[in-house]
Write a structure and sequence with these properties.
Elements (H helix, E strand, L loop, with lengths): L7 E5 L4 H12 L3 E6 L3 H13 L4 E4 L5 H14 L5 E4 L15 H21 L1 H4 L5 E6 L12 H21 L4 E7 L6 H8 L8 H9 L6 H14 L8 E3 L4
Parallel strand pairs: 1-2, 1-4, 2-3, 4-5, 5-6, 6-7
């Protein structure tokens, strides 16, 4: 395993769920973890837990829906961490859960910004820390929704499909900088996103009963289980892996 004790990883959506679990797993290896998420008590608590394992780690409140905020946050990362060795684009937003013709356009656009445009904005802004000649691994968290349309998930499906292609583009262009990029579908995970899905109305989301069933039948994986499977990919994927899409259930 590659030693991560002198590495810095940026993790988005780091306050809860998969992001939190990955941040803790990285911290266990002595990695400096930069936790990005919207300001909340959850972010403060996760930061405390991460710093107990890796005192050099720190958090920066950041709303990926606000591109000015993204740029400001990236500037703070560059000031404190001139070399970034890993970037995990985990933050995501399932809303709006509405039929395509009924979805509010501003909510739809916000989803695209959080799930896709913010990813590009953050990565581009971090370029000086990613292209210094050192080895860099970028991981994007995809979804099965990237491969097939689901009713009332038009924004999410479109953004995740775009994210998969963005990852391939980054892989192609990043090879000159020793930068690799992979995407991974985490499966159905017991996170706040699943709570939001189950909370949608039947009229807005015809498949709601299916997702309630997944929870009741114990089919949801825990964030910790998923992070443990993801960790080798996040920390060790090779240049030969770059541009590929993985499914956590196959890892």
């Amino acid at each position: 395993m590659t030693s991560l004790s002198e590495h810095t990883y940026v993790v988005t959506g780091a306050s809860k769920g998969i992001g939190k679990a990955l941040a803790l797993r990285l911290a266990d290896e002595g990695t400096t973890v930069v936790l990005l998420a919207r300001a909340s008590e959850a972010l403060e608590e996760t930061t405390r837990l991460v710093q107990e394992r890796s005192p050099s780690s720190y958090a920066l409140p950041c709303d990926l829906a606000d591109l000015d905020d993204v740029l400001q946050c990236a500037g703070s990362v560059l000031d404190r961490s001139p070399a970034v060795h890993g970037l995990v684009h985990n933050a995501g937003d399932i809303h709006p859960i509405k039929p395509l013709f009924e979805a509010d356009t501003l909510e739809w656009a916000r989803s695209m910004t959080v799930n896709l445009v913010g990813v590009q904005a953050l990565t581009r802004a971090l370029k000086p820390a990613l292209t210094g000649g050192h080895r860099v691994r970028v991981t994007t968290v995809s979804s099965g929704a990237a491969l097939r349309p689901l009713p009332s998930w038009s924004a999410y499906c479109t953004a995740k499909a775009g994210l998969d292609m963005w990852t391939k583009c980054l892989a192609a262009e990043g090879s000159a900088h020793q930068l690799s990029a992979v995407s991974v579908a985490p499966g159905i995970v017991d996170t706040n996103m699943q709570v939001a899905i189950r909370g949608a109305s039947e009229a807005d989301f015809p498949l709601r009963a299916n997702f309630i069933g997944y929870k009741e039948d114990g089919q949801l994986a825990s964030p910790e289980e998923v992070a443990e499977k993801l960790f080798p990919l996040v920390s060790e994927h090779t240049m030969n892996d770059s541009g590929q899409r993985f499914d956590v259930r196959d890892l």
